Amino acid sequence: MPWFDHDDCSLHYEEYGHGTPLILIHGLGSSSQDWELQLPVLSRHYRLIVVDVRGHGRSDKPRERYSIPGFSADLSALIEHLDLPPAHVVGLSMGGMIAFQLAVDEPGSVRSLCIVNSAPEVKVRSANDYWQWTKRWTLARVLSLNTIGKALGNRLFPKPQQADLRRKMAERWAKNDKRAYLASFDAIVGWGVQERLSSIACPTLVISADHDYTPVAQKQIYVKLLPDARLVVIEDSRHATPLDQPEVFNATLLEFLKTVDTTAQDH
């Protein structure tokens, strides 16, 4: 299992397959394990690289403030460490924010972008925004990670046949380092690159679950700000689309990547 060091932090990543690089970035409180239903399929077509973001999974959890630009700088350092050509970059939730940051800061590193159930900014503007974030912030500090994991599992995977996904969610969430989890949570609030979206020239696919935390309408607004983007809505899905609708997700992503690669060859 490979590690590399950047900015006094040892970061864990794994590689599978061969070909054009495809990087997968997980969400808050998660790890590269959350791509388990993508690994066998995507690695047949691409050089697949999954990372544990600083403070998550098997990467170090330094006691410091975290930031989305900092997470993106870690990813940029990994791309340099592996000497990768421009890569397809896929990010789920917080991973989508890291992917957006990379695309505006290091456009030459990104061949295409796939943003899953995410947004280009998390700004607290209205009284309701403030109330929602204060509530989440307080609960994250008061409740145990075990309790949060169980509640999230029930919310993300409510169907009777999803018991295994609920169990995995609760088990994995409980393994988080609470201080690193809270520092990552704090990194999201107030972050944003929405005013820089017009600079993202690469092909972009935005995937939204029909029952994501934020409505599809919010994704439609920012998709219009991207020069070369389209939105796909996946039905009967919640925030963890790669886990609750893996077949549809994998097929949608592969179709997009194939189109990008074919178009690139034609030019």
From TrEMBL:
Keyword terms of this UniProt record: Hydrolase
GO MF annotation list: hydrolase activity
Protein name, UniProt field: Pimeloyl-ACP methyl ester carboxylesterase
InterPro entries for the chain: AB_hydrolase_1, AB_hydrolase_fold, AB_hydrolase_sf
Lineage of producing organism: Bacteria, Pseudomonadati, Pseudomonadota, Gammaproteobacteria, Pseudomonadales
Native species: Pseudomonas rhodesiae
Domain spans labelled AB hydrolase-1: 21-244
CC terms in the record's Gene Ontology section: membrane
Highest taxon of source: Bacteria
